[in-house]
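User: Round two. Same drill as before: sequence, then structure, for each protein.

Assistant: Same drill it is. First protein:
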Amino acid sequence: MKRKTFCLLAAAALLAGGMNAHAQGAYPAQPVKWIVPYAPGGTTDVIARNLATRMGQDLGQPVVVDNKPGAASIIGATFIARSQPDGYTVGTADSGTLAFNPAMYASLSYDAGKDFTFIGGLGKMPLVLAVAPNFPAKNVQELLALVKKSPGSVSSASSGPGSPLHVALELFKQRTGTDLMHVPYKGSAPALQDLMAGQVQTMFVDLPPSLSMIKGGKIRVLAVATPQRLSILPDVPTMAEAGVPGFEAYAWQGFVGPAKLPDAVVQRLNKDLVAALKHPEMRARLEELGIQPMPMAPAQFGEFVRSEQKLWSGVIKAANIHLD
């Protein structure tokens, strides 16, 4: 009797262990939450919602976007960092979250190097150097000549202190040895409005919110800050072609989870993310918005983040940008 009881208990334990192992391996077994650290409707939100829909189809579970805006992405980033590392809370971390904030804030509620698992890249938003329609300079060299003739007299708007548009301006100033007057705004929309009206003269802009203005002739683009010309702006030279070699600048976004995310979960999410980014329909949709898909393996994305941190921390330090 005792032997029979022991055998039954052993069989039950094996069955339970097998069921538990099966449950642990059946990721995802519930909806996945995608944290977006910005308000609904912006570029970051649009990218996330498009990719979440397609990834949900491959994962077999809904991927639900949850917006947690505020504090230069710090609120959303901290939420991700403090979540359980089970693969059910992941989200967007961008150049501000991972490369700019650590250099601009003396104290952060997250550690960009230790508190996240890097899953993969999402997309790049190329930056272009634009000017007001009535601005006299017709190319970058004419702009540089004007600035060098009267340092500090040519204004350059940004979407706010420490934003990708501001940091790109500082890199441009450092690489060209010029002094443009920075005019920060609360967001890119009012800055673009004043650029169109000629209230400010120049501005680094990202393509998604400004593409229609560029194509409509409401602002003029002198150069793109990318290694090659852009297919959607084929007649606009690169910075290197315009006489500023080695200048590249773009806003970028990646996909992260909390630290210590299981490798099997990371690989599954990366697999479906890369498939979504490479899908012809998705790729075309993003490129129409001026977004370059950025599929990367987890290790590759980690190396990319570290190289961006090194580059921009030097630029930010040289420009003495502090946000606290």
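Second protein:
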Amino acid sequence: MADSLVIIPTYNEKENIEKIIRKVFSLSISFDILIVDDGSPDGTAQIVKRLQEADFSGRLFLEERKGKLGLGTAYIHGFKWALARSYEFIFEMDADFSHNPDDLIRLREACLQGADMAIGSRYVKGVNVVNWPMNRVLMSYFASVYVRMITGITIQDATAGFVCFRRAVLKRIPLDAIKFVGYAFQIEMKFSAIKYGFNVQEVPIIFTDRTEGTSKMSTKIFQEAFFGVIQLKIGSWFKNYNK
């Protein structure tokens, strides 16, 4: 078993799932993969099962859930699965190649060099986003500005979903108390890691919008993030992070 696990939540990713799995397994460093599939009606889970049986037994794992339960709960499910095993480095990554699998090695190296949480950041060195319409770029960029303004944290890409956690971070954060399920989940995990005193670093990446499949962004997800940031800040006033 590898010391690194890549968690990939999926919902209707049949166009991408086999390619992303094979790419991760082709890297020079060994990573295991956990797919958390929310009952994809397009057969994503069946593709994963075929790959398990044919090529990647013991390295590729699948957890199937009933219904579309949200990104945050998929990652929490995956985090608990990883903590029940001996993985030291636990990653979040999208299935659609918006995150370059080659950068997994760079995020892992950042944690080896002292980071407790390494974030694949689109904005730490300018704006590194490819194929997004300008309104989407501006919304994402100024969302992070808003998060910094409200919470006081200094992360440039607060909604980033390409992350490496050291095991100790996920053991320390009370996962059952994480409230949010959309992009606010990503903000909450970074905010929590910082409040618990962990070393959170940003690693510059180039983010490329998906070319196949359908984006999961929605107005509801955006609203959760907008109002969730205020809830996070207020809630932190009444929470003891030194326990």
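The chain is about 40% helix and 15% strand.

User: Perfect.
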